[in-house]
Amino acid sequence: TTSSNVSSTDIGFKAVPTSTANEVVVPEGYSTEAFLPWGTPITGSYPEYKPDGTNTGAEQEQQMGMHHDGVHFFPIDQKAGGNSSSEGLLVMNHEYINQGALHANGATKASDNGGVRPADEVRKEIAAHGVSVVHIKRDTSGKWDIVFGSPFNRRITGNTEMDIRGPVRGYSKLITKYSPDATETRGTLNNCAMGPTPWGTYLAAEENWHGYFANSDATQPREQTRHGVGSSSRYDWELADSGEDQYVRLNVSSIGASAADDYRNEANTYGYMVEIDPFTPESKPQKRTALGRFGHEGVIFAPAKEGEPVVCYSGDDSRFEYIYKFVSSKPYYAATAGGYLLDEGTLYVARFNDDGSGDWLSLDLNDAEFKAKVDAAVGTTVGDIAFDGFENQADVLLNTRLAADIAGATPMDRPEWGAVDPNSGQVYFTLTNNSRRTEDQVNAANPNANNRTGHIIRWSEEGNDHTATSFDWDIFVFAGEQGTETVVGDEVIVSLTDDNIFNSPDGLWFDYNGRLWIQTDGSDAAPYQNNMMLAANPETREIKRFFVGPQGCEVTGVVSTPDVKTMFVNIQHPEGNWPDSSDPRPRDATVIVTKDDGGVIGA
Ligand code: FEO
Ligand code: CA
Ligand code: CA
Ligand code: CA
Fold first, then answer.
1. Which residues contact 405 (CB under 8 A, 6 or more apart)?
2. The whole model's pTM is what?
3. What distance in angstroms lies between residue 572's CA and the mean position of ligand 2's atoms?
């Protein structure tokens, strides 16, 4: 119980020191256990994980994917208005893969194999991407386990069939051989962070999707150049030796007579937020195009209010990219809410003015100001793109980055996760770093040239109304070495110490009491050492290091049960043989954190 003079956001534990150990470190009085490592069987025939790397592609489709990232716990009774902290659906993203660890003897390179890759290796790699839905339950001894045979257990992969929804659905620039009416696609890739919706579904973000496509055409369309699709792909999946359509589609060159004969438009079906309903296992994932197409890191919803629009925020994690907000056209009613609310609305992009004010700039062609900017830009060069206009609103959304350039948004230092303070309503975003920002490119919201350590920005919407088109912002904290100061007026509000130095904030989450959890994906050299998670009091800006990950990893993805007594923290791309010293392969895993006295984490 909380005594009357202790705020629910006070940070009660003793900070842990930095660490170089190949293990998880948490404060005294807390315990951890690795759970659901890559390869754990979770569905189908539950094929056993083989530490020698010989699991097949078909087996990987029934096992946990690799590179765990954003994660959410849905109480099993949520749809009935319940709040279970002992049973639920744990849903998580698998951002990318460690090819060396995935196969028995590493990956077979096309360059060493006559220009092709073994199809089953490719199948396995695609299956190690995507999303896992795992029904989990805590037994009376407090141990969490998978509910074997549960109908909710499910894998969604880089090859799962999906619908295109929202304004871009049916647009000619999404026509492919697979979907001549531009309404469907296959797969979701590079799913980084996520966001639970107010109606109990999960949105997975497609971040660095561009790397999975290859285009050998002499020139590429702006829908690819603005994202950096290259002439070869990250893992050469399009070169699978079976020649099957599911792999060939990743070659987005113009090789057929028309768009309906090839996959020149396949990349236009990526870059979205993908809605998955974990409580409806047979449901088809839905790509929600009204939220824009870019390098989506994740999404965070403002608390839904009966009869008001739904509002969510999403960052585009690339240097000098932007922060967006979507406001639905239709009002939210708890009884009827669903993904359709995300199909119609206004997408805005943020401008952070140097005086601490900010504006949400509409990207809707029906907005007179935006339309005038678009008209004025026709015939000019925007970035590297010779701009000849937008055909319609679908074209605007397909080229969201370009639209935001034209609108005059503020280029940020790599926006990663966002979080909304359940007590104050303030919105926080991590700006992880941007070593390419030069002195003449700084602005008040991104004030550091060569920003190697990042910062966290926050704002209050005007009138604390999330649909407002203006806001007031400030910088919550600058990350960095000991002595790094965050100054408000003439007062040093934060000066980092051994208890809280950190760099490259990435994951960000407010727990259900209002403590802010900050995860890092940065330099793991001295003085920071291994990546970590810290807890912050948003009112006082007290920050303490709570958790340090094993060697080489980033700490990304955090959620708890509703009572905040079990916390799930993801470890991505660990090294060596973490978490099992008897296994030669490193395995991404979810770390379960509990307090030994059964209390609230962080209190
Ligand atoms: Fe996948 Fe921006 O981190
Ligand atoms: Ca990552
Ligand atoms: Ca991230
Ligand atoms: Ca990152």
1. 382, 383
2. 0.98
3. 7
